[in-house]
Amino acid sequence: MKVAVLGFGTVGVGVYEMLQHAQGLEAGPVLVRPGKDDAPFKVTTIEQIVQDPSVGAVAEVMGGVEPAFSYGAAVLRAGKHFVTSNKALVAAKGIELNAIAREHGAAFLFSAACGGGVPFLHNLSIARESDEILSMGGILNGTTNYMLDAMQRLGLDYGDALKDAQRLGYAEADPRADVSGLDALRKIMLACAVAYDALPTEGLLNEGIESVTAADVAHFRSRGYTCRLLAKGSRAGGEKVSAYVEPVLLRDGAPECAVLANYNMASYEGKCSGPIVLMGQGAGRYPTASAVLRDLGCILHGKHYMLQENCRLANADNSRNEHAYYVRLPAEHAAEIPAESAELDGDVVRIITKPVSVSQMHFMAERLRAAGVELFFAAIGG
Ligand SMILES: NC(=O)c1ccc[n+]([C@@H]2O[C@H](COP(=O)([O-])OP(=O)(O)OC[C@H]3O[C@@H](n4cnc5c(N)ncnc54)[C@H](OP(=O)(O)O)[C@@H]3O)[C@@H](O)[C@H]2O)c1
């Protein structure tokens, strides 16, 4: 099967190189911007790919929702299979692309959009056919894991950990999607769509790591805790799912504590299988390209879809999951948090809350921040 590649950046170059050696696959034309067509295999319009009868599949590795969506829709309408590493595209337009693919008998797969090289969605999409997926999630963002790990093991403060992640090529020049938890949230949205036929778009909650300090991390260490940014998804009754991202304090010895640097750990719990844990590189040229090639291999073996025909947009309900939280905030605002215990540390107070729901905690933090209060919170053991 000849595969055209849309985009020739970090992942695109890796996909093109891997296609030179992959069994049953062949590298086709590569779409680049006008002026960058400096080699015979490069083309500058999508029509050159859509109208090429020798192209059987297209791998989109450009990023962004447009023109990726229009291009994907055009190639699917031409009956060509479409695979993508683009989580923003699938979170925004996955249901539409799935419908167009099914209508035209073409495949639509997006394993690389969640977990990079870690075959999370791939396994989830197979497991859900025979088992009930009770919950899923894990460490789905390598940049923030690198930063939290560097703050803990190297004693860096937040700014230096971010600079290090950028120097090593883990964080984007604009790292907001990573550090705010949005990147991990998009990934758990895709996992919910795969496992539960529900792509949540409303009611989602994401707390990132932007307000964690070196003093917070030192405090966690002194209490035997490691902080990780975790994404979580589960059913929430009826048509709803629970889907959120937040920092979590884990007791030393928990499997997530062993995930160092920019690695990812994705897991799901099947009713029959019990917990399944997958660990590996969540980003990078070749790990991500390997997931794109895995999808293309799946197409050769007849697996065409990760989303069921009835997959729909859904609301998230995060009011049923309850746990205690660590909250650090200025001492004068201590009374605004339902505390189980509190420890005064100079001008700030470190509170362990009574059990509260995920939505209650996120809304409390939103309300306090809107009033100008600086705080950090993390679930305990959650
Ligand atoms: N990098 C990773 O480790 C990783 C991991 C998992 C998933 N992903 C996803 O994979 C996708 C690509 O990521 P990347 O890191 O490879 O990005 P990248 O290095 O920025 O590469 C994207 C390439 O696509 C080109 N491009 C963008 N729009 C185009 C258009 N309209 N026509 C032709 N070419 C266009 C860009 O060209 P210009 O430079 O001229 O704009 C660039 O060469 C993103 O969706 C990302 O989220 C990446």
Oligomer: single chain
Within CATH, the superfamily of the largest domain carries the name Dihydrodipicolinate Reductase, domain 2
The CATH class of the largest domain: Alpha Beta
Mean pLDDT: 96
Q: How many E strands?
A: 20
Number of helices: 12
Please give the domain count: 3
> What bound compounds does this protein have?
NADP nicotinamide-adenine-dinucleotide phosphate
CATH architecture of the largest domain: 2-Layer Sandwich
Strand content: 25-35%
Radius of gyration: 22 Å
Structural class comes to alpha/beta
Distance, first to last CA:
45 Å
Major sheet attributes: 10 strands, mixed
The stretches of 5 or more residues where confidence is low (pLDDT under 50) are none
Helix content: 25-40%
Q: Which fold name corresponds to the CATH topology of the largest domain? A: Dihydrodipicolinate Reductase, domain 2
Please tell me what the overall shape is: globular
Task: Give a short synopsis of this structure.
The chain is of the alpha/beta class and about 375 residues long.
What does this structure look like?
By secondary structure, this protein is an alpha/beta fold. It folds into 3 domains: 2-109, 3-Layer(aba) Sandwich (Rossmann fold); 120-281 and 307-315, 2-Layer Sandwich (Dihydrodipicolinate Reductase, domain 2); 322-380, Alpha-Beta Plaits (2-Layer Sandwich). The chain has 12 helices and 20 strands. The protein has helices spanning 10-19, 47-50, 68-77, 87-103, 120-130, 142-153, 158-167, 176-179, 182-196, 214-222, 285-300, 358-370; strands at 2-6, 26-31, 42-43, 55-60, 81-84, 108-109, 133-139, 198-202, 205-206, 225-235, 241-251, 263-270, 274-281, 312-315, 322-323, 325-330, 339-345, 348-353, 356-357, 376-380. The strands form 4 sheets. Strands 7, 9, 10, 11, 12, 13, 16, 17, 18 and 20 form a 10-stranded mixed beta sheet that branches. It has a 6-stranded parallel beta sheet with strand order 3-2-1-4-5-6, with helices on both faces. α1 (10-19) packs across α11, α3 packs parallel to α4 and α6 (142-153) crosses α7.
